[in-house]
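call fold(seq) -> tokens
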Amino acid sequence: MKKIIFTAALFISCISVQFAKAQIGFHLSLNIGSQPDWGPVGYEHASYYYIPDIGAYYDVDSHQYIYLENSIWVHRTYLPVRYRGYNLYNGYKVVINQPNPWLRNTYYRTTYASYRGRRGQAIIRNSHDVRYRNHWRGPGRVPVRHETVRPVRPAPGRGPVGHPGGFPGRGPGHGNPGHGNPGHGGGPGHSGGEHGGHDHGGSGHGGEHGGGHRG
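ret:
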């Protein structure tokens, strides 16, 4: 009886371990969206990056850099001034899925010393893999594009409001209603609207054509 109970308990333990591993694997696969656009491709989960060029680490989930400052490991959202000119898109990154890798810094520094200065690593920004379509871009990483608004040109034959002549070669415009200027010497009157003005001696009646009649 004891043997049967022991066997059953062992079987249940094995199932529990496999289930736990499956859960961990599923959790790790959800990390792609946190990986930055300068991160290396090919990893469904990345806890940390080790950057051999500068001897610093990057926490993928918290988006913080970890580096030595006055002999103390600090966590910052930015690199120190001495590394401000470093191009993260060109440098090599080593994916580490172990907790607190900086506590084993001697091991990582020695193991990946040959990776310093290495270039050509494929990064997420340049990948067309659909898995990375929602990767983390960081604040201000992608500039906002503004559309240029072009002025609308008037349709042919319709000049600006209040301009009786419209544009040259486009026919008469449409002005605001009003009284035209009196004609001179019985000559053509000048109209600013639909009705021309009257002259005592010989004013012209301005219409849309602006022509006057002798009195």
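Residues 156-215 form one domain.
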